[in-house]
Amino acid sequence: MAVTAPYRVALLAFPGIRAFDVSVITEVWGVDRTDRGVPAFALRRAATDTAPVLLRGGLTLLPDRPLSWLTHADLIVVPGLDDHLTPAPAPVLDALRRAHARGTPLAALCGGAFTLAQAGLLDGRRAVTHWNLTDLLRIHHPRVDVVPDALFIEDGNIWTAAGTAAGIDLCLHLVRRAHGAEVAATIARSMVTAPFRTGTQAQFIEHPTPRTDRDADTLAAVREHALRRLGEPLTVADLAAHAGMSPRTFARRFTAATGTTPMRWLLDQRIAAAQRLLERTDLPMPEIARRAGFGSEVTMRQHFASRLATSPRAYRAAFSTGAPVSAPAGSRPTAR
User: Fold this and answer.
1) Model's pTM, two decimal places?
2) What are phi and psi of 107, to 5 degrees?
């Protein structure tokens, strides 16, 4: 049996990068979880030289590869910055430009968008950063189309993420793209975090918490109720009735608490459920569509195309684990 080469990830290291982002990248790709079905990763710390990179808090990062190693990387990740206007070394910027020209995916966490912008790679592209830095990015890099409220976005094989925890979201999403939802979920469980979050930064800018504990408990119960009934044709009115609210009040409070609308959240859960069934079972497509709540294979295929840029059959071909036909009726994503 042929041995699959490890997926090679480069952590770009230079003075000024954030210790938190380095830790996130290392936790996602630098831990061996092959005993739990996660593919082998080769995480390397690439820098201009082998001198220790000083991080805030008295920490140091030891590079183990030169910038030339980026030619071998399947993915390059740029951490955020402690000072968001820190100029990156010219060799780093040149290496990023060459990597992008080769077609290597680039991902920047939080203020790492400023590094990509310094390289000119975000000119004319959509990008996101921490909500508190959007004006700064616009002022210093006016050719960048700054998106104010996304958790992460992609434009031209370049990924950017909002602040702090959104970096975890993006890293897990990149794992999900390359290796499937089940691998991402396994890593997320190890990190004790959600496999993916829905919504936008607006939930943190305007409404950091639900208005009352009672609302929070009620909405959590509604989400749990919906997840147990994904196969049913749920509507906002149905969910509102379960919450004991009018549809308008329910929709407003749900959006304030989660950063997304009830129906968009429900669609995300249905896509996640379908992904899990496609990976873990060989149930026929109509049955997967029914269990996930799409109603028909055609509808499921349309949503996969619009949200994942693939088809259910192509997704299964790429990520199927070859599990038994039957799937537990209660198999579902976790309420969040």
Assistant:
1) 0.72
2) -135, 135
